[in-house]
Structure formats: structure tokens, C-alpha cells
Design goal:
This protein starts with 9 loop residues before the first helix and ends in a 26-residue tail after the last strand. It folds into 3 domains: 10-194, Rossmann fold; 213-374, TPP-binding domain (Rossmann fold), CATH 3.40.50.1220; 388-564, 3-Layer(aba) Sandwich (Rossmann fold). The protein is of the alpha/beta class and 583 residues long. It has a 6-stranded parallel β-sheet with strand order 3-2-4-5-7-6. A 6-stranded parallel β-sheet has the order 15-14-16-17-19-18, with helices on both faces. Helices cover 37% and strands 16% of the residues. Its EC number is 2.2.1.6. Pathway: Amino-acid biosynthesis; L-isoleucine biosynthesis; L-isoleucine from 2-oxobutanoate: step 1/4; Amino-acid biosynthesis; L-valine biosynthesis; L-valine from pyruvate: step 1/4. Belongs to the TPP enzyme family. It catalyses: 2 pyruvate + H(+) = (2S)-2-acetolactate + CO2.
């Protein structure tokens, strides 16, 4: 269980909020901290520096939320991201000006691409020096303009309560995403009468939640007429908390369903109608079904290129229904026949009032079940080498599919998506749109802080782990019991796979020789370390790691040349799969 520096009961939390909301002349820094408490923030990830010294001075002795000092600003924002994805709350991080702020950029872009609600707080130089190239000055609002949902430069301390309240509202409504608040040092020092803001009125910002009923009626009629309907569910199902409504919709209509990489966990993997994940490394059945469907119902996915493959040949026979809270996504990549703008949960609640079984699709359902039985994910196991797929299967079996799993980016990410079966939403944390290496381990720290009583497993490659390994320190210091898995194939695996299959074995700059002894590295930080290179060692090491009460690192030495299959090469339609071992 995670060691918490403060334990707040519901009663005491209300008492704290009552105390924090009393009008009082205080500094901008104190206003910030009080406002965070009033927004129900219980954990902040950050790294101090000159421009945020007043904020951190106000935080001295402050015990109304946890602050986790990471070892790099990128670790802070990835941890805040993992916290948000695993909890459904807004993640919060703090960094200083200049390099502190710019070190957050990759994490902001990661959250923006995947619609993750964050409030990112940066310091800046004093207002009179802005624009003079002062020491550690950076125009972070300008730098991040394309990758934030909104950003603020606070010019007047009296605006701070309103801005903070608006930032949380914007981040966690509509299509969710990161909001940045840049606070000059003089604003954080200035004093004013603090009056909490509890209402929001933002001209021009009014996301559509409830759908047009006529469009929902069109969806129901399309289902009734369809012989080969298919649902494509994405991360919007998870983010809107619509997993129960989706299950009800599928149960009532009896329509087969495939879930995108970010949609994993939004629908129970054990359900017979689930086809697995579609796209570049998706299942044979999901990809073939998309190409054969006469009705494709997109629920909260954005038709990413890793799902669609060659757009001109995607779902060529299907009438397209697209349900999304962001109208800009509808029709952006794939022409849409029935657009439905609204919150996924609300749309499905209305659709479920009318939904009936797709009676014309019996032959289609039978065909899909035959395909699932004939073409499951498969690999050639080995008695002499440790296969990464086998490792993921072992992790699934030993955690009963109930762990929160975070990943870095690469082959291990795809193997985790393929071979770990998720039954609950918010149990899968991965960088989808941006594909950010270095994300996996820090995001697990955030996920564990949000869920102190759940098992959190971070699956990484030996490449991505070296981009964030310094965060082992905070696991040791705070006894954050993340179980860190490193699938070590001594190479940049996904790059090697592409170079083998697409670039005719011209391997260029992929060798990770010189990587550290990960067991010794873990132990240097005070974290328990294990290594395994065969199945028996793997079983023993993993059992010990799971039973260990604190953080643990397990290095699984796996086959260097193993590939992820199926694979759809760029420029191909998704039914043109390289099956590899399954061929």
C-alpha cells in the first residue's frame, strides 16, 4: 500500500475545504494552494525552481494534499497523466520557468493527443521582465498553444481564483485535455483578498453533451437494417465513464465490438462479442470484420491512422456512424453518414432506451465466432528462450486480470495490449496518439498514487526504461509499490522489426549494448531487483516481486528477434496483414 503523507476522511476533508474557503488577505501562492484543495486535488507532482519559490515556500508545512517531488519535470507530468487516467480526476503538476516549463512539453502533447485532463502550473519571471529574455524565461503559453486545450498567463493576482476554477472546468469537460496556467513570480508573491470562485461562465465554451434525438433515431434504424453491424469503441468510452452503458448497448443489440488501444478496458475482454483490438497490430478478426461490415458504429474513437490503415480502403462497405463529443473529429478522417455529437455516456443512455437486437445479423455473428476461433493471437513458444508474449500472459494469470497496467511505447506495448485481458475501465494506461517513450514508468507512479490498494504493473522495454529510470528514487523514498517489468531484448525492438520487414534487414543504430544491469540499478535506488532468462526463473522472480510489499523491478531477458504479429505495413489496408508465426 502506498505510504501517504496525509490521510483525509470525508468529514475532515469538508472541514478543510470550509477552512480554505474563508475570505482572507493572502498571497497568490497561498491562493493557488487553497484553490487546489477546493478543486478536490489530493496529489500534485512537481519540481521546484526560482520562479515557483513563493509557491513552494507556501507549501512548507502544508499537509492538505500530497506533493511528490519527481526527479525530472517530464516524470512529474507523466505521473500526473497516469494519475488522471487511472482515477478519472484531473492530474496536476508544477514546474518552474524556462527549462522547467519546456521539460513539460512532451507530457503536455501526450495528454493532448489522448484527451487526458491535466492542469499544468508553471512559474515565469516577474511581469516587468517578460519579453526581455530574462534568465530562465520562456514563452511557455506560446510554445504549448497547439498542444493545450487552453492556456492562461496570470497578469493580476485577483484573477487567480477564477482562472484556477476555469482551468479545472475546461480540462475535465467536453473533450478533455491539458490546460496550462503560467504564473509570473510577482503574481505568486502579491497579496489580495481571497474569494473562492464556485461558478463558471466562459463565453464561447459550451460543449454539446446531449445529442440530437433525430440522429439517435437514425442510428437505431441503421441497426435494424444492418446485416453486418460492428462497433468500434475508443478511449471516449473510458473517459466519459460509459462502460456500463456500452455493455448494455452491446447486450441489447447483440452487435460484435472491437476496442481501440485506448479503449481497452472499456468493454470486458471475456465477452463473446469482443473481437479484440483493431489496426496495425490488431486481431485478424477485428480487421477483417471492419472491412466486411455494412455498418460501423464508432463510439468515442477518432479514426486514428493506426486503426484505419490506408484511408481510401478503410471499411469500404460500411455506413459510418460516429459518436463523439468533439465535432471536429467527425468527418475529419473518414466520411460520416450519421454524425452524433454528444457525450458518449449520454448518447448511449438515450440509445439504450430504443436499442433492439440486430436480428438480421445472425449469420454475421456466427461468421465472426468462427474467425475468432480460427485466428486468435498466437506465437511460437520456446522451452529454451523466454518469449515476451509468455511473460505478459503470466502477468495476466498471476494478477487475475485485475491489475492496473501501464506501458511504455514499442513492441512490449503491443504485446501487453494483445495478451493482457482487461475487465475494468481505467486499468490500462498507455501513450496512444503521441507514442511517448519514457511515459510508462512515471505514469505507473501516478496510477499507484491514485489507487493505493491496487496492484500496478508497469511494463517497459529496455529503451524506454532508460528515459525515466531516475524516478525509481521516489518509489523507494515514498514506498510506492509499483511492480516494474522490463522486457529486455537489448535492442530498439519496434524499430528493428520495421527495419527487418520493411527495410530489408538494413539494421541501423538500434543496438542498446551498454545498457545498465537493471537489477543493480534498482538496488542502487533502494528498490528490490530480480532477473529471469527462462520460464522457471521468471515464475519465481515474478512471484517474489508480487509478494514484496514495496516497489520491485523484474528484468526479463527475452528473445532479441521476436516480432509483433499481426502487422499492417504503412500504406496498406488493415486486411492486408503480415501474420508471421500465425501464417
Amino acid at each position: 500500500m502506498v505510504t501517504q503523507s496525509v490521510s483525509v476522511t470525508l468529514k475532515s476533508k469538508e472541514e478543510v475545504k470550509e477552512r480554505m474557503s474563508k475570505p482572507e488577505v493572502i498571497s497568490g501562492s497561498e491562493i493557488l494552494l487553497r484553490s487546489l484543495v477546493l478543486e478536490d486535488v489530493d496529489c500534485v507532482f512537481g519540481y521546484p525552481g526560482g520562479a515557483v519559490l513563493y509557491i513552494y515556500d507556501a507549501m512548507h508545512g502544508f499537509s492538505d494534499f500530497n506533493h511528490v517531488l519527481t526527479r525530472h519535470e517530464q516524470g512529474a507530468i507523466h505521473a500526473a497523466d497516469g494519475y488522471a487516467r487511472a482515477s478519472g480526476k484531473v492530474g496536476v503538476c508544477i514546474a518552474t520557468s524556462g527549462p522547467g516549463a519546456t521539460n513539460l512539453v512532451t507530457g503536455i502533447a501526450t495528454a493532448y493527443m489522448d484527451s487526458v485532463p491535466l492542469v499544468v502550473i508553471t512559474g515565469n519571471v516577474i511581469s516587468s521582465l517578460i519579453g526581455t529574455d530574462a534568465f530562465q524565461e520562456a514563452d511557455i503559453t506560446g510554445i504549448t498553444m497547439p498542444i493545450t486545450k487552453h492556456s492562461y498567463m496570470v497578469r493580476d493576482v485577483e484573477d487567480l481564483p477564477r482562472i484556477i476554477h476555469e482551468a479545472f472546468h475546461i480540462a475535465n469537460t467536453g473533450r478533455k485535455g491539458p490546460v496550462l496556467i503560467d504564473i509570473p513570480k510577482d503574481v505568486s508573491a502579491a497579496k489580495t483578498l481571497f474569494k473562492p470562485v464556485t461558478e463558471v461562465s466562459i463565453r464561447g465554451y459550451n460543449p454539446t453533451v446531449s445529442p440530437n434525438k433525430l440522429q439517435v433515431d437514425k442510428l437505431i434504424k441503421a441497426i435494424e437494417a444492418s446485416e453486418r453491424p460492428l462497433i468500434l469503441a475508443g478511449g471516449g468510452v473510458v473517459y466519459s465513464g460509459a462502460h456500463e452503458e456500452l455493455l448494455e448497448f452491446v447486450t441489447k443489440t447483440d452487435i460484435p465490438i472491437t476496442t481501440t488501444l485506448l479503449g481497452l478496458g472499456g468493454f470486458p475482454s471475456g465477452n463473446d462479442l469482443w473481437l479484440g483490438m483493431p489496426g496495425m497490430h490488431g486481431t485478424y478478426t477485428a480487421n477483417k470484420s471492419i472491412q466486411s461490415a455494412d455498418l460501423l458504429i464508432n463510439i468515442g474513437a477518432r479514426f486514428d491512422d493506426r486503426v484505419t490503415g490506408k484511408l481510401a480502403g478503410f471499411a469500404p462497405l460500411a455506413k459510418i456512424v460516429h459518436i463523439d463529443i468533439d465535432p471536429a473529429e467527425i468527418g475529419k478522417n473518414v466520411p460520416t453518414d450519421i454524425p452524433i455529437v454528444g457525450d458518449v455516456k449520454t448518447v448511449l443512455q438515450q440509445a439504450n432506451l430504443l436499442a433492439k437486437r440486430a436480428d438480421k445479423a445472425d449469420a454475421w455473428r456466427e461468421q465472426i465466432q468462427e474467425s475468432k476461433a480460427q485466428y486468435p493471437f498466437s506465437y511460437k513458444d520456446s522451452d529454451t528462450e523466454l518469449k515476451p508474449q509468455w511473460v505478459v500472459e503470466m502477468i495476466h494469470e498471476t494478477t487475475n486480470g485485475d491489475a492496473i497496467v501501464t506501458t511504455d511505447v514499442g513492441q512490449h506495448q503491443m504485446w501487453a495490449a494483445q495478451y493482457y485481458k482487461f475487465n475494468k475501465p481505467r486499468s490500462w494506461v498507455t501513450s496512444g496518439g503521441l507514442g511517448t517513450m519514457g511515459f510508462g514508468f512515471p505514469s505507473a507512479i501516478g496510477a499507484q498514487m491514485a489507487n493505493p490498494d491496487r496492484v500496478v504493473v508497469s511494463i517497459n522495454g529496455d529503451g524506454g526504461m532508460q528515459m525515466c529510470a531516475q524516478e525509481l528514487a521516489i518509489c523507494a523514498i515514498n514506498n510506492i509499490p509499483v511492480k516494474v517489468v522490463i522486457l529486455n531484448n537489448q535492442v530498439l525492438g519496434m524499430v528493428r522489426q520495421w527495419q527487418e520487414l520493411i527495410h530489408e534487414n538494413r539494421f541501423s543504430h538500434i543496438d542498446l549494448a551498454g545498457s545498465p544491469d537493471f537489477v543493480k540499478l534498482a538496488e542502487a535506488y533502494g528498490v528490490k531487483g530480480f532477473r529471469a532468462s527462462n520460464k522457471e526463473e521468471a515464475k519465481v522472480a515474478w512471484e517474489e516481486a508480487l509478494s514484496h510489499p514495496g516497489p520491485a523491478v523484474v528484468e526479463f531477458v527475452v528473445r532479441r528477434d521476436e516480432n509483433v504479429y499481426p502487422m499492417v505495413a504503412q500504406g496498406s489496408t488493415i486486411d492486408q496483414m503480415i501474420m508471421g508465426d500465425a501464417e
